[in-house]
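Researcher: I'd like a candidate sequence for this fold, 236 residues long. If you have to choose between options at a position, lean toward the conservative one.
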């Protein structure tokens, strides 16, 4: 809301009765990521790179938000002027929980140090390594910032979203977490918990196992121009 001068992100909230009448899914609450800034070329590049970040995490784990790229017509109802931009829609959190067999945690506003033991540590470390890979420090489980928490098999999962402040995206308005000793969003800083050498090696092995698939996602993504695609590949 604060950084998007052209079109802030918004939500689509459908009526469940309308969805049922149309024989559609019951899930009704979807976030739309928009072109955000005025410069169309830069805005398009930022949308596509953030979309890719979601697709990378999809490649690493099904416990992630699915996304769908869209070509959107914005119609000014007063003038009739139509603007066409790329954007993408993010899976309803209820749909994600239903898909992975997780439960909602009501009224959770933060994860305290005592509650850290409730986290699925393997999943949490995977998420933290992913955030490190894309250079994103704009998240926190202590204050539930840009993560959603749900419960599966007796453990809490931290599902990340909102990657426009990541170094991979490198948005002109992005700034690093002010509490960290870094100056630029393209600098990486690991925000995961302390782990044993074995646990760290297991996390790294998981990423290396999926490295080829992630790099192929980038190479096959022809909507990005060659210069932007090379920047993404070099950053990864």
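Model: Candidate sequence:
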């Amino acid at each position: 809301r604060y950084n998007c001068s052209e079109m802030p992100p918004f939500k689509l909230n459908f009526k469940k009765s309308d969805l049922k009448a149309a024989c559609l899914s019951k899930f009704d609450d979807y976030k739309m990521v928009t072109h955000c800034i005025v410069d169309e070329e830069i805005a398009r590049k930022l949308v596509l790179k953030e979309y890719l970040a979601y697709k990378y995490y999809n490649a690493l784990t099904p416990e992630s938000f699915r996304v769908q790229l869209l070509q959107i017509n914005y119609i000014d109802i007063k003038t009739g002027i139509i603007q066409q931009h790329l954007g993408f829609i993010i899976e309803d959190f209820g749909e994600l929980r239903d898909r992975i067999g997780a439960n909602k945690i009501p009224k959770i506003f933060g994860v305290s140090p005592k509650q850290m033991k409730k986290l699925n540590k393997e999943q949490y470390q995977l998420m933290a390594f992913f955030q490190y890979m894309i250079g994103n420090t704009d998240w926190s489980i202590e204050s539930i910032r840009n993560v959603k928490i749900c419960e599966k098999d007796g453990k809490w999962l931290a599902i990340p979203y909102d990657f426009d402040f990541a170094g991979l995206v490198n948005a002109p308005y992005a700034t690093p977490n002010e509490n960290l000793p870094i100056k630029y969003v393209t600098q990486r800083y690991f925000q995961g918990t302390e782990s044993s050498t074995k646990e760290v090696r297991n996390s790294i092995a998981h990423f290396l196992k999926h490295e080829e698939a992630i790099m192929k996602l980038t190479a096959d993504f022809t909507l990005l121009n060659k210069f932007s695609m090379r920047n993404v590949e070099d950053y990864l």
